[in-house]
Amino acid sequence: MGKREKGGFWVAVSAAAFYPLSWMAKRDYRHAEKLPAEGAALLVMNHVSHLDPPSDAVFVHRNGRVPRFMAKDSLFRIPVFGKMLAGSGGIPVYRGTSDARGSLSAAHDALREGKLVLIYPEGTITKDPAGWPMWSRTGVARLALENDVPVIPAARWGTQEIWNGYDKKFRPFPRKRVVTLVGDPVDLSAYRGRPVTNQLLREVTDLLMGRVRSLVAEIRQEPEPAEFYRASAKRDTATD
């Protein structure tokens, strides 16, 4: 691992809080060397538990980078945690409001400044009954297409065994294994320069999440589903 990226006071506070949380699990990091050691990058991940952000933050931080999370704006209003999230460079995501495009604007700025932006395109923990990545929002595609930066798919599996967000059960013992697997950067050259339409954004989003889903399948050693689970028929837009 090279020189660690500077983070500042709130990154140090977040690390002090998140590292102990990560010790609840047996961590298994695979192909972490595929994370760029410096410069801008878009890290695209699945979302299975409310423990994912602390787990993923520690993974990225242990590899010398500071993750800038794109997270629901409501999380920024949680006492203490919201301060940690904002102070460490988190990007609030406003859905269904006039500020929705501003969320992407802040992420664009972070990438242009050479930061590593971490995004969960599903927008919430998956509702797929089997835990596979579900149908995702297309903001990730816009970020990937409008910024010439490495787009890195990654998957993490096991946090849901510790804290299941739907049955609200917390099972820290016995210690579970949490696997994080990083994939190769996705070549988007065939998509760049084309008119940015909703169809193109959907195609790129599904491509990226398909790579993430394949990584989940590799961890689970199971065949992946052919389609993404859809919890509802909500309209998809470029700012989702």
Automatic annotation (TrEMBL):
Top-level taxon of the source organism: Bacteria
Keywords of this entry: Acyltransferase, Membrane, Transferase, Transmembrane, Transmembrane helix
CDD domains: LPLAT_AGPAT-like
Residue intervals passing through the bilayer: 7-25
Molecular function terms, GO-annotated: 1-acylglycerol-3-phosphate O-acyltransferase activity
GO cellular component term, pick one: plasma membrane
Phospholipid/glycerol acyltransferase domain: residues covered: 41-159
Gene Ontology biological process terms, A to Z: phosphatidic acid biosynthetic process
Hydrolase keyword on record: no
Name of a matching Pfam family: Acyltransferase
InterPro entries: Plipid/glycerol_acylTrfase
Stored PANTHER family: 1-ACYL-SN-GLYCEROL-3-PHOSPHATE ACYLTRANSFERASE, POSSIBLE ACYLTRANSFERASE
Name used for this protein in its record: 1-acyl-sn-glycerol-3-phosphate acyltransferase
Organism of derivation: Actinokineospora globicatena
Lineage: Bacteria, Bacillati, Actinomycetota, Actinomycetes, Pseudonocardiales
Gene of this entry: plsC
